[in-house]
Amino acid sequence: DGGITQSPKYLFRKEGQNVTLSCEQNLNHDAMYWYRQDPGQGLRLIYYSQIVNDFQKGDIAEGYSVSREKKESFPLTVTSAQKNPTAFYLCASSPHGEQFFGPGTRLTVL
Amino acid sequence: QKEVEQDPGPLSVPEGAIVSLNCTYSNSAFQYFMWYRQYSRKGPELLMYTYSSGNKEDGRFTAQVDKSSKYISLFIRDSQPSDSATYLCAMSLRNTGNQFYFGTGTSLTVIP
């Protein structure tokens, strides 16, 4: 069963803590993406990777970090430097001109 | 000016109605156009994917692209309560190594 998985579905973090969101795909897609979705603001690009061991900052990369050690995996770390991390985080992958999304992780800072 | 503009709605229609959702864009270099459906607290689901201008039909859904007007549309025929969701348009420049540009989404409610 091919697809994109994200874990956990819900995540709670105390202020000052780093947390890592998992994204795995078995679609053999080269490109992977992380977006943040806030009510009324649409999707905002955090980071994207076109190939293993390479990634680029998106529009709102400050306070986030990523790695791309394997084609299948693109984890996102939300660091304590991110001032307003409570949001819905979406991972996506792309084979060509279209993009497919995972189910999302809802992060809440307590 | 935003790259992609989409009326946020909300849009409310009776069951069985034809729904028209629209986006405009500013970059004439966009080549690939997508429509997504997103239910509350779920990831967006790709509904329609078209390249360049023209129409594409899939069941009750029809996507239209008018590159001369920089305007794309999604039509839903015989709308159902299960179509109630937020619809996002998206577009990209190239076949690979893309960034994608999204509208902010239109919220649709289909009333039984």
**Biggest chain contact:** A-B, 26 and 27 residues
Beta-strand percent range of chain A: over 45%
Distance between the termini of chain B: 38 Å
**Major sheet summary line of chain B:** 6 strands, mixed
Secondary structure: number of strands of chain B: 11
Low-pLDDT residue intervals, each spanning 5 or more residues of chain A: none
Structural class of chain B: mainly beta
Gyration radius of chain A, in Å: 13 Å
Q: Using the alpha-carbon principal axes, give the shape of chain B.
A: globular
Q: How much β-strand is present in the residues of chain B?
A: over 45%
Unreliable stretches covering 5 or more consecutive residues of chain B: none
Biggest β-sheet strands, sense, barrel of chain A: 7 strands, mixed
Helix content of chain B: under 10%
End-to-end gap of chain A:
35 Å
The number of helical runs of chain B is 0
Radius of gyration of chain B from CA coordinates: 13 Å
Oligomeric nature of the chains: heterodimer
Overview of this structure, please?
The complex is a heterodimer of chains A (110) and B (112). In chain A, the strands form 2 sheets. In chain A, strands 2, 4, 5, 6, 9, 10 and 11 form a 7-stranded mixed sheet that branches. The termini of chain A are far apart. The radius of gyration of chain A is 13 Å and the shape is globular. Chain A is 0% helix and 53% strand. Chain A is mainly β and 110 residues long. Chain A is built from no helices and 11 strands. The mean pLDDT of chain A is 93. Chain B is an all-beta fold and 112 residues long. Helices cover 0% and strands 55% of the residues of chain B. In chain B, the strands form 2 sheets. In chain B, strands 2, 4, 5, 9, 10 and 11 form a 6-stranded mixed sheet that branches. Chain B is globular, with a radius of gyration of 13 Å. At the A-B interface, strand 5, strand 9 and strand 10 of A face strand 4, strand 5 and strand 9 of B.
